[in-house]
Amino acid sequence: MNFLGRARRARPSPFAPGSLVLVEAGRSTTLAVQPGQRLIVGRDAGANLVVSDPQVSPNHALIERSGPGWLVTSLDAANPVMLLDPTGRAQPVAAELGLRSGELLIGGCQVVLYPPAG
Description:
Layout: E1 19-24, E2 27-32, E3 38-42, E4 49-50, E5 61-66, E6 69-74, E7 82-84, E8 90-92, E9 96-99, E10 102-106, E11 109-113
Parallel strand pairs: 3-4
Antiparallel strand pairs: 1-2, 1-11, 3-5, 5-6, 6-9, 7-8, 7-10, 10-11
């Protein structure tokens, strides 16, 4: 409830179910990711999502739409993907993590994963 005693209504997401939003240096890129689709995020020109942030490894992370959500894999053990918990604290993704939705830090880039429909 807000301070006037009225219940707040959750705003619907402006993004399609199963969307990924990458924010780098104030610019955002939105992708509708299909089930089974795999994306490499990194500085390498061969990555599916190429970022210029020097904190990002050439092949930093693998993000896949898998089953009822997402599968996130850190590809550089020395420079892991970080998962932001509900309080905003960053926790490293040691190897692989399945989640329905979430917010990640890849170097200095923010990645928001929206849940698939259903």
